[in-house]
Amino acid sequence: MDMKFARLGAVGQEKPVVIAQDANGPEKYFSLEPLTKDIDGGFLATDGIVRTREALIRGELPEIQPGELRIGAPIARPGSVVCIGLNYAAHAAESGATPPETPVVFLKPSNTVSGPFDATPIPPSSEKYDWEVELGIVIGREASYLSSTDEAAGCIAGYVVGNDLSERNYQMPGAAGQWTKGKSLPQSTPLGPWLVPADQVDAGNLGLRTWVNGEVRQSSDTSDMVFDVYTIVHHLSQYMLLEPGDVILTGTPEGVAMSGRFPYIQPGDVVELEVDGLGRQRQEYYRAQVAALATTGSADRN
To answer: Is 281:117 a contact under the CB 8 Å cutoff?
Structure first.
């Protein structure tokens, strides 16, 4: 039985669900609340995916109607969001770099994670906000100093669609440009709509696509990755502790605005991203406003 895991509800009030389809019927939504309060590291580390499949087979999960509920990120706030840079040769070339000999690694704050359909802010002073469709790995068990890529495969719970939004003026060299600055902005990591279990996904052969206002920007395949998903997990485990619920974004293919071929994201733009079998995102962009300075009580602080 194929399954997809999702979290539905307002921001901060998401409820865990599983979407399942038997051989003869339509997809149905089932509440996961009999098994867990949320789809998080604790759920994944205690064989939550296996327990869900067993509960579905036994008919123990109540069916629900999703209605118009918001779709949140499919994994509750991860402990770490780890990213791999320049992992497609063509993207490295359009960035003015050569393909790396070892994975390029950086981190994003976990508070950047947002839902796949949430309206998304462009930073107030941003001039070069850019999209990056990526295959995301969700870790299902602790990984540290793994001995092989086979062992790494056993640590992957599933996969998600990710958008690694990047402000290139903040990221690139000059005026203290840094990758962390350019990739840590609020709501700059839309994830979802679903977490799909690893045993249902051929991660080495997935199409990835991005559209901006209906026009194709990125169209590639994970078979073009410089480092595959198992190599990435094995490599990272030599340098950091990966915990259940952590997310790894595995890099983006060519076709970003930084290439010079396309304009950067503007207010009112609609960006859609898709990975085969993992669903499709849609974000409409608006200009964030500079927060007004609070004046109440200011005299007391002087």
So the answer is: yes
